[in-house]
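Justification of resources, computational component.

The compute hours requested in this renewal are based largely on the per-chain cost of generating structure records like the one below. Each record pairs the submitted sequence with a full structure-token output. That output is archived, and it is also reused by downstream analysis tasks.
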Amino acid sequence: MACPTSKGWGYYFMIEHTFFSPGRFEREANEFAWQLLFDEESCRSEYDGDIGRYAREEGIVELVKYRK
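The structure output for this chain reads:
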């Protein structure tokens, strides 16, 4: 499960040049990015959400962007 730290750092999943803004896919995107940091192969093959399906079918161009 993903959460920002006390210093306010957050991460956002990025596909090509598209960012998920807060809303429908934000939680799923952030959880996927968090899992991808630790186990990319497992995430690509086992993640069941829309973003996991995209990663399996289209591939991932850029993984995570950090911001303060």
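Residues 26-38 form the longest helix (13 residues). The first strand starts at residue 10 and ends at 15.
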